[in-house]
Specification:
Length: 247
């Protein structure tokens, strides 16, 4: 998809991967960027606004565990612009101690966001069509015993994405999922203590072997190429800065 001049919502845009992804989008001269996140980051927002003066960049507060705030955030965008072209669902947490919150944010919140986005974007309801990108994880495609709950939510996102893609003929909205592998971001800090069974973490790590690690910038560059070229319903991995279609 050609993103130039488009209205984009990026949910979780102040996160580790999110920051780099929105920078890649802004380099492509999108017209309007709405960053949905729970907490603001005024310093970073101001930095973006100065670096990309030709794009309108705004922050909207959203709590992905509360559907009403998701609905309200989308309403802000519609009231200001009248239409949405691209939505990236990039919010998420990784803490196996917080099972209910992990499911609420990583899966339930993403489902609500997709359904609300489709309602606004569907050509059948007066929208312009467009693209919804769900940021899942390699953990949703492979067995990840250290993060079993997190992996379950991401697997759900992948399956849900493929199902939503079936509505393209009716809606004109494409749905794809991007599944980053191990990426250097704050979400993986102190992973051992946040794993499913911390007491077994060392033993599990020995069975996993060496993992290919990438920077958030490498992940974002691959993300941008996927957004520009991916077909509806496709699922992509991003490993070590390289991307590949898996479905």
């Amino acid at each position: 998809m050609d993103v130039r001049g488009k209205c984009v919502i990026y949910i979780g845009g102040f996160g580790g991967i999110g920051r780099k992804c929105i920078e890649e989008l802004l380099k492509k001269e999108i017209a309007h960027l709405f960053i949905f996140d729970l907490a603001t980051n005024d310093i970073y927002l101001s930095k973006l606004q100065k670096e990309f003066p030709n794009s309108i960049i705004e922050y909207v507060r959203v709590d992905m565990s509360m559907v009403e705030t998701i609905k309200d955030a989308y309403k802000v965008v519609m009231d200001k612009t009248g239409g949405i072209d691209i939505v990236v669902n990039g919010s998420g947490i990784l803490n196996e101690r917080l099972i209910d919150l992990t499911v609420a944010i990583n899966l339930t919140g993403v489902i609500h966001s997709n359904l609300i986005a489709l309602n606004h974007m569907s050509k059948a309801k007066g929208g312009r069509g467009g693209l919804v990108v769900n940021i899942a994880s390699l953990a949703g495609l492979e067995n990840m015993p250290m993060t079993a709950v997190y992996g379950a939510t991401k697997s759900g996102v992948i399956n849900f994405t493929k199902s939503m893609a079936a509505y393209y003929e009716c809606s004109g909205v494409n749905f794809i999922a991007v599944c980053p592998g191990a990426t250097i971001t704050p979400i993986v800090a102190d992973l051992a203590s946040k794993s499913t069974f911390p007491e077994y973490c060392e033993a599990i790590l020995k069975t996993l072997g060496k993992q290919s690690v990438q920077t958030a910038e490498q992940c974002a560059q691959a993300f941008m190429k996927i957004v520009e070229t991916a077909d509806n319903g496709t699922i992509w991995t991003v490993l070590g800065g390289n991307f590949e279609k898996v479905n």
